[in-house]
Amino acid sequence: MSDHPIGGAHAPLLEVDHVVVQFGGVTAVNEATFVADAGTVTGLIGPNGAGKTTCFNVISGLQKPTRGKVRFRGRNVTGAPVHRRSKRGMGRTFQRLEAFGSLSVRDNVRVAYDIHRGLAGLVRPGAKDIDALLDRVGISSYADERADSIPTGTARLLELARCLAGDPKLLLLDEPSSGLDESETDDFGDLLRDLAAEGRGILMVEHDMDLVMGVCDTIHVLDFGSIIASGTPGEIRRDPAVQRAYLGYSDEVPEHELVGASAGASAVEETRTDLVPVGAATEATTVIPAVGATIPEDVR
Ligand SMILES: Nc1ncnc2c1ncn2[C@@H]1O[C@H](COP(=O)(O)OP(=O)(O)OP(=O)(O)O)[C@@H](O)[C@H]1O
């Protein structure tokens, strides 16, 4: 039964409502409240240790919150186990790769179809379904390779294909672009937009600011477990608190010189995406120009 205060029909796809997670004395998530809507791509960003993965664990059912609620499709799922959320249409990929290494890429997707369909899967997916999915995520050429022999970026796309085999209404993607090169990341961004255009909701934890700023409709920023800003990419880029906490910023530079801080910010500034998280560059600059904007593994 729906417990949404304004009724299930108009409820956001996902609502995280004043969620708190404490690990002993550490407050990993502190009253986090945000939504992700169907048909949109939502980014969840923030510095290392900000609580992003813990939020994902609460949403997907791996972590019980100390307080607060998670609603999915208008229903309170806070106490629901992972498989029930999955059945209701929640799919997740992980930072670590979960595929079966000794199986081929194609067989990994076949297994994912079987798992999602369960006993209802009396009719097994045809090779056509599987190959169409591999094609959709752009890894057809690896179909017959063992999953443990493919590049990391390709393996992440395989994770996505396995997730899509369950036809999820909400996709939770944890750093999906790591390991992809620039052109693969561009294609991946197009795929995310396509998936959202089909009516799916996508919530993504991602450090590649070009991707986040380029594909997200809405971004929520976590810092020390709290949401410090929510808005469009343009709003987030201009937010001084976000600049300080996460995006390139130096205290020596007056705030009016921050990207887009003034009402008269130029069109060039409005559209620029050359922002990377603090700590991702060696030079102390106001707004750190991104080189490919992907953070090296060692500063994550
Ligand atoms: N199981 C746990 N036990 C104790 N502390 C934890 C646990 N999981 C996470 N934490 C702490 O909670 C905080 C948030 O961690 P979390 O992994 O959610 O951050 P994150 O934003 O995902 O970081 P990253 O970008 O590095 O993945 C950190 O201080 C972390 O050390």
TrEMBL record:
Instruction: Outline the extent of the ABC transporter domain.
Output: 14-249
The answer to whether keyword ATP-binding applies is yes
InterPro entries found in the cross-reference section: AAA+_ATPase, ABC_AA/LPS_Transport, ABC_transporter-like_ATP-bd, BCA_ABC_TP_C, P-loop_NTPase
SMART domains tied to this protein: AAA
Molecular functions (GO terms)? ATP binding
Arranged from A to Z, the UniProt key words for this protein are: ATP-binding, Nucleotide-binding, Transport
Q: Which CDD domains match?
A: ABC_Mj1267_LivG_branched (cd03219)
Q: Tell me the protein's name.
A: ABC transporter ATP-binding protein
